Amino acid sequence: MTQRDYYEILGISRDATDDEIKKAYRKLAMQYHPDRNTGDSGAEEKFKEASEAYEVLRDAQKRQRYNAYGHAGVSSSGFGAGGGGIDFDLSDALRTFMSEGIFGDFFGMGNKGGGRGSQRQQGSDLKVRVALTLEEVARGVTKKIKLKKLLRCDECEGTGARSGSSPATCNHCSGTGEVRNVSRSIFGQFINVSTCPHCNGEGQIVKDACRKCKGGGRVKDDTTLTVDIPAGVSTGNYLTVRNEGNAGPNGGPPGDCIILIEEKQHKNFERHGDDILYDLPLSFPQATLGDTVEVPTLEGRAALEISPATQSGKILRMRGKGVSKLNGHGNGDQLVRILVWTPTKLSSYERDLLKKLAKAENIRPPQYAKSILDKIKDAFTH
Q1: 17 falls in which pLDDT band (50, 70, 90)?
Q2: What mean pLDDT comes out for the span 151-163?
Q3: Helix or strand or coil: residue 271?
Q4: What is the DSSP pairing of strand 315-318 with strand 168-169?
Q5: How far apart are CA 370 and CA 364, in angstroms?
Q6: What H or E segment, with its residue span, contains residue 354?
Q7: Cα–chain-centroid distance for residue 237?
Q8: Burial class (CB in 10 A: 0-12, 13-18, 19+), 86
Q9: pTM to 2 decimals?
Q10: Quick check: 355 and 331 in contact, CB under 8 A?
Q11: Mean pLDDT in the chain?
Q12: Is a pLDDT exceeding 60 seen at residue 7?
């Protein structure tokens, strides 16, 4: 059975922050919690599904493996193995639900700490496409990737304030980053919470701005990121490098760098999973009489034995000459497809030879071979 994408289950994007992941799970958990849906097996399954997705995406290492390799990366049978996801049961989900403080937080009984201003905003993620040759994909490669990103200002250490000064607490929101408007109606009291327009939710205001970053706490610069790309990846795979994205505003933590793998087309080989396919043209005499030929491989040229009477379209297998498997357990094979080549230009001498050869009985395909009756007639006429 095909498993649903964890991001789709929680209804979030692939670059969702930890807070967004928790908020999405909290909403689904409250909606489908077994205590609220007694006897509803469908709700229980949705609760378990959402909890399984949350268990993976809230863990940085599990999320990185999932982003890169999908469900295989977090399989209970080991990294890169096939099969169905992480080990999971309902009791684990309920323990997570309670231990995370999600129930209390939902009803306003969780942490009473500061507002948004007490938590620095995380920087945005960077997305980079990396094109790899088949040789690099086959054995893995270390790549140095040039990035242009926002770095924390070293002059003000990300605060945005001039050296020797510091940001001041926003008087409008008292440092919470939020403003609350209370309204009353016949139905009771309503509280509307919104981002403070004076400090943009930061809880602080820079009055004496840093000269280098102009008060933003960040500067744009070029950096180089070294990434180890494992063997066996393919187009569409993601690698997530934590904390290598843009620095957060006003000293906030950096985002991540998401590396999207693209595979270049190879001039000789066609990839099929862990196997590679090579088309080998042979002359009619080579295919008929057999031969030893050299063929290209990902590691150089290698000898290949051609048996006599080899038919066009036959596939020969060179064991272990393909792409390394993503889980590290062995290599695929190189498949060599035989194509008997037909010459396009002939001399008169070559043409005469072929005409004589064409009359030979064993040269013609089986559908043109003489019947037994034809052979008897020939015996009486010669």
Answers
A1: very high
A2: 88
A3: strand
A4: unpaired
A5: 10
A6: helix 348-358
A7: 2
A8: middle
A9: 0.57
A10: no
A11: 82
A12: yes
Strands 275-282 and 270-272, by their bridges, are: antiparallel
Q: CB burial class (10 A; 0-12, 13-18, 19+) of residue 347?
A: exposed
Q: Which residue has the tokens 């948004």?
A: 116
Identify the H or E element spanning 279: strand 275-282
Q: For tokens 């037909």, name the residue.
A: 342
Cα 324 from Cα 273, distance rounded (Å): 10
What number of CA atoms fall less than 13 Å from residue 317's CA on the CB side? 6
CB 243 within 8 A of CB 152: no
Q: How many residues in the chain?
A: 382
- Tell me if 113 sits within 8 A of 178, measured CB to CB: no
In this prediction, residues 259-287 reach a mean pLDDT of 95
Closest CA to 323 of 237, 212, 214: 237
* Largest Cα span, the chain: 119
Written as one letter, the residue type at 159 is T
Instruction: Go through the domains of the chain in sequence order and give each one's CATH number.
Output: 1-112 (1.10.287.110), 116-167+206-264 (2.60.260.20), 270-381 (2.60.260.20)
Token duo for residue 284: 């009619």
Helix (H, G, I), strand (E, B) or coil at 226: strand
Kindly state the tokens that stand for 66: 């999932």
**pLDDT number for residue 345:** 93
The pLDDT assigned to 379 comes to 61
Q: What is the pLDDT averaged over residues 22-29?
A: 88
List the beta bridge partners of residue 279: 337
Rounded to whole angstroms, the Cα distance separating 218 from 159 reads 9
What CA–CA distance (Å, rounded) separates 306 from 204?
77
Rounded-to-integer distance, Cα 130 and Cα 260, Å: 6
Which pairing describes strands 334-340 and 275-282: parallel, antiparallel, or unpaired? parallel
Enter the tokens of residue 25.
Answer: 């799970």
Neighbours of 23 (CB within 10 A): 15
The candidate with the shortest Cα–Cα distance to 123, out of 163, 152, 95, 86, is: 152
Name the packing angle between helices 41-57 and 18-32 (round to 10°).
Answer: 170
